[in-house]
Amino acid sequence: MKNLNLNLVTTFCTVVNHNSFSRAADELVLSKSVVSKQIRQLESELQCTLIQRTTRTLSLTEHGRYLFERYSKILDDIKDTHDVIDQRNETLSGSLKLRLPIVLEHDMDLIQKISSFSKRYQSVQLDIIYGYGVGDLVSDDIDLAFHIGAIPDSSFRCRKIKSLGTKVIASTNYLQNNGTPTVPTDLKDHRCMNYRSCLTKDKWRFNSSDNSHEFVELNSVIRSDSERMLVEMAKNGLGVSCALDFLVNDYIDAGELVSLLNDYTWSTDLYIVYPSAIVTSNKVRAFIDHLTS
């Protein structure tokens, strides 16, 4: 005899439960002819008749009654097992180690999403560390890393979380003393303050009117590993800087900073990166799904 075919068993039990091929077909979303064919296939494999058919009624043979009782128990056990797995997935536990650039500590939307994950899965311990770059997630024992911009290593899996807008900013006092740039190339004549880990180094990318982009070489008078520090220096009138929206929107609204070159600025993407694996853990999948939902 062949191995047990659960599809045939399910069809058989559904027919018996409904005492009807038509109603079983409706529940299984199959045609009546397919249901009949599957019952005949099961009977052929077992080399016995399970259901006596007449034009109006169905009745089980002795073999049919015995197998229906046994098969029903098997299907119930399978359902119970799946229910346990679903429950374990919903009540995840253990630790989840995250690495993210320190600048993201000011992204209130992201913090809210991470917080709501922690509230939902209270048995999962979040271990959050700061760090730039993807690095070696496996040797660093990192489950998930947040990365701003293009992913440098295609061996990792990644999911886009969202787009992050950027703004070129300066203080009113600086602009009064040095003039206001109106096109990107004007920045060559300004004191620019640049993030040291900028992917384009001492060049800033800008969109052009023809939907292409251009890079402008900067006169970088200050470089820093801290984007937050550059924003504070811009507020103090030391020069022009570029920052992510969530770092500067409140200062712009308050009049402490001015947003420049708005027709030319561009957005970058925030990704969540995780090691390639044959099976991704339930915790990692749940976290990614939560942040991308």
TrEMBL record:
Task: Mention one GO molecular function.
Answer: DNA-binding transcription factor activity
Q: Which Gene3D superfamilies does the UniProt record give? A: 3.40.190.290, Winged helix-like DNA-binding domain superfamily/Winged helix DNA-binding domain
UniProt keywords, alphabetically? DNA-binding, Transcription, Transcription regulation
Which parts of the sequence belong to the HTH lysR-type domain?
A: 4-61
Pfam families with a match to the protein in the record: HTH_1, LysR_substrate
GO terms in the biological process aspect are: DNA-templated transcription
Task: Look up the domain of life of the source.
Answer: Bacteria
Which InterPro entries does the protein's record reference?
LysR-type_TF_proteobact-type, LysR_HTH_N, LysR_subst-bd, WH-like_DNA-bd_sf, WH_DNA-bd_sf
Q: Which CDD domains does the protein's record reference?
A: PBP2_CrgA_like
| Family that this chain belongs to | Belongs to the LysR transcriptional regulatory family.
- PANTHER family noted in UniProt: HTH-TYPE TRANSCRIPTIONAL ACTIVATOR TTDR-RELATED (PTHR30537:SF5), HTH-TYPE TRANSCRIPTIONAL REGULATOR (PTHR30537)
- This chain belongs to the protein called LysR family transcriptional regulator
According to its UniProt entry, this protein's organism is Vibrio amylolyticus
